[in-house]
Write a structure and sequence with these properties.
Elements: H1 3-26, H2 36-40, H3 46-51, E1 60-64, H4 70-77, E2 81-86, H5 89-101, E3 106-110, E4 123-129, H6 137-147, E5 148-159, H7 164-172, H8 193-198, E6 201-207, H9 220-236, E7 246-252
Parallel strand pairs: 1-2, 1-4, 2-3, 4-5
Antiparallel strand pairs: 5-7, 6-7
Helix pairs in contact: 1-5
Bound molecules: S-adenosylmethionine.
Length: about 260
């Protein structure tokens, strides 16, 4: 598949998803208005990852591959001036409507994460959730370095592919929310090599080792116990992050 075919297939897949979501907003089955907590606590890695962006007040922030645009709204409510982009015009429309419904201003554009329509050194902070694993990381990494200001940070939350048991489950087991595009792949250590070649400072942390049980068993108490054990295990044995469900990847651009 050529790069153009890949982009087209991603765009069609996500536009279709956005069109289905648009119906649920129109018919009142879902609401565009939400609280910060609803976004920051919808997965265990989101709040700690968001904290890595630092104080956003007065900063220029980018929601990279914004999809529904919830992160853009939360960044705007934290005092940032926010831009957001996505390949799918359907999702860009949702992000724009969501910003409006939540009474914040977000500049939303349709764009490819491998060829950004922003000037050099535009952003202090870049946020991305479940986006890098759709991209060519050499092209995306170069663009990230270009649009970040010196001293800026980009934080990404990405499905991680280092656990063979989880890889098997992702391939074979039925569970909710499994829709995938043909080209996306959970990231592995090897996939990060292009980013490490571009950014001198790449920090990777793992989330949901035992806690990934919540994908099939939504018992709150059990999940909380697993999260507690995970926190201890990952502190003592950081190498176990390779077995986690998700990784948070922070890329820092050095000061000039
Ligand atoms: C799994 S969704 C994540 C969306 C959102 N960040 C979130 O938190 O839910 C992946 C998103 O990446 C977008 N995408 C895929 N390839 C892209 C590309 N080359 N450039 C920009 N966005 C892309 C899709 O349209 C989709 O909205």
């Amino acid at each position: 598949m050529t790069a153009t075919d890949r982009l087209e297939s991603e765009r069609i897949f996500h536009d279709q998803q956005a069109a289905e979501r648009a119906v649920s907003f129109r018919t009142g089955r879902a609401d565009l208005v939400f609280s910060d907590g609803a976004f920051l606590d919808h997965e265990t890695w989101v709040r700690p990852a968001f904290a890595m962006l630092g104080d956003l007040h007065g900063k220029h922030a980018l929601d990279y591959g914004c999809g529904h645009g919830m992160a853009a709204v939360v960044m705007a409510r934290a005092g940032a001036s926010v831009s957001a982009f996505d390949l799918s015009p359907g999702y860009v429309a949702e992000a724009q409507e969501r910003a409006f419904a939540n009474s914040v201003n977000v500049e939303c554009v349709a764009a490819d994460g491998e060829e950004l329509p922003f000037a050099d050194a535009s952003f202090d902070a870049v946020w991305g959730n479940a986006i890098l694993h759709h991209l060519d990381l050499t092209r995306a990494g170069k663009e990230l370095l270009r649009v970040l200001k010196p001293g800026g940070v980009a934080v990404f939350c990405e499905p991680w592919g280092g656990n063979p048991l989880l890889a098997f489950a992702r391939r074979r087991l039925p569970y909710p929310g499994k829709d995938r595009t043909p080209d996306e792949r959970p990231l592995t250590r090897r996939d990060l090599a292009p980013l490490r070649a571009i950014f001198p400072d790449v920090e990777v942390s793992g989330f949901q080792l035992l806690g990934m049980i919540r994908r099939v068993w939504r018992n709150r108490f059990a999940c909380r116990v697993c999260d507690g054990i995970d926190a201890g295990l990952l502190r003592m044995l950081p190498g176990l992050r390779n077995w986690c469900r998700y990784a948070v990847i922070a890329l820092r651009k050095p000061m000039d």
